[in-house]
Every structure is written in C-alpha cells, then in structure tokens.
Specification:
The protein is an alpha+beta fold. It has one domain: Major capsid protein gp5 (Major capsid protein gp5 fold, 2-Layer Sandwich). The chain contains six helices and 13 strands. The strands form three sheets. It has a seven-stranded mixed β-sheet. A four-stranded mixed β-sheet has the order 1-11-12-4. Strands 2-3 form a two-stranded antiparallel ribbon. It is flat.
C-alpha cells in the first residue's frame, strides 16, 4: 500500500498552454503620503519582479509479454499497469513539489540554498514551544488565516509532546473524520518528503504554483522494434509539469541545527 498523492491539493494548480510561463510578482508597493492644500504631491514607485514556470517531463516505458496480456483473464493487466504508473507519477509529483531540485525537476518549496526565497530561522537542541511561537510570528499576519504546519512524521512525534505553561498538550486530534489534526490551533499536514531538520508554516497555496502542461498520457503499442520482434506490448506514459515558489513571503521555515 502506498500513500495517496496529496500535495497537488495543497498548492495552486495552473493550466499551461506553453512550456514556459512568466508570472509577474510585486517586490514593493507604491506608498501614499499626507499633503497640504495646493502642495506638490510626492511621487512613489513600485518594483516588479518575474517568476518563471518551466515545464519538466516525467516518462517511462514498460514492456510486457503478449502472452501475459492474453492469458490474464481475471484482470485487465494493461489497465492495471496504467493505474500503477498513475500512482508512481503522483508519488513523484509529491516529491518534487516538496524537494524538487529546480534543474531537471520543478522547484521544491523546501530545497536548500535560499533559491525559493522563503525566510528561515534556526534553532538548536530539542524543539520547544518557544521555537514554534517564533515561527508563527515570523509569518506576516495576512497569511495566518489559511496557514498550516508542514511537518515530517518524526517531527509530528515531537510536536505531540509539547505542552503550554499549564501542562496542557498543544496538539489536538481531528474533531471528525477527514479533518486534520491541529497544533496551537493551526492544521498540521504530514509531508514525509521534508527533511526532519525543517518545519514549514504558512499558506502553501499562495506560495507555490504547480503548472499543468500535459497530464499523464498513455500510448500502447505492439509495433516498436523490441515489441514486434519479441511478441511484447509496450506501455508508455508521459507527464509534463512545472512548479515554483511564486510568493515566498507566504511561508516561513524553522531549521534545526544539531
């Protein structure tokens, strides 16, 4: 059993009609000032930047014998393999949204080196409630209403143990089926593609855009050279997506230093 792909639901999905999409972003806003009657008005500026969604391609081919296809009377083995490919593509998509290398893969929101622009703070030793409070207040107020914690499973274990000054656990289990657990009032999302050294907090749907250029397409052929000479069926899948952090201010990260 594999984890169902879920990261696509946590980000903003954008249809793409070409391989590269330019996205304008605002670095600084225009300012207004008070003035007197008949006085000269002050001038202001706004600075714009540009983010880029660049499509990357996932693909795979599997050969199966024609005898396997013909003799599998209980299940449709070709459709079963296509379902397995779909699960694998979903899992890989989850990985790159979180930790994509931004070269051969889309950019992941957690990659190191400051590429994403997401601001970080560090802590040392065991995780404390004070560390989490600092992380929450690092995030600008306008992103708090839809903010979540994005945490590796091993860090969730530590969050569940944290208490306030009155000895009450800060972790709250889901109030109903399908609802997330919360920590200090904010939903917690388990992302096991994160390194254990990082906890993220913020509105990922505002911060990250996933570009859909070509959803998974399937081609089935018995006419390739390999398939024809060996009595095989070839199943080829291709998926093309892009991903990048477009609004780093909507997320903050806490990095643990040993």
């Amino acid at each position: 059993m594999y984890e169902s792909p879920r990261m696509r639901n946590e980000v903003r999905v954008i249809p793409m009609r070409r391989d590269v999409m330019k996205i304008p972003s605002l670095d600084s806003r225009p300012q207004v000032t008070w003035t007197e009657e008949n006085a000269t008005k002050s001038t202001t500026t706004a600075h714009f930047n540009e983010k880029t969604l660049t499509v990357k391609k996932m693909a795979s081919i599997m050969y199966i014998s024609d005898e396997l296809v013909d003799d599998s009377t209980e299940i449709d083995v070709v459709n079963f393999i296509i379902e397995l490919f779909s699960e694998s593509i979903g899992e890989e998509e989850d990985k790159v949204i979180t930790a994509g290398n931004n070269t051969t893969q889309p950019m992941g929101y957690s990659i190191a080196g400051g590429t994403t622009g997401i601001a970080t703070r560090t802590c040392s030793g065991n995780l404390s409630f004070d560390n989490v409070i600092d992380l929450e207040y690092d995030l600008p107020r306008q992103y708090h209403s839809n903010a979540k914690f994005f945490v590796h499973r091993n860090n969730i274990r530590e969050l569940r143990k944290l208490k306030d000054t009155d000895g009450r656990y800060l972790w709250q289990d889901p109030v109903s089926v399908g609802q997330p657990a919360t920590f200090h009032g904010y939903p917690v999302f388990e992302d096991n593609n994160l390194p254990e050294s990082k906890i993220f907090f913020g509105n990922l749907k505002s911060a990250y855009w996933l570009g859909d250029r070509q959803i998974m397409t399937v081609k089935i052929s018995q006419d390739t050279e390999t398939a024809f000479t060996k009595d095989q069926t070839a199943i080829r899948v291709v998926s093309r997506i892009a991903g990048t952090v477009v609004l780093p201010d909507a997320m903050r990260a806490l990095i643990s230093i040993p």
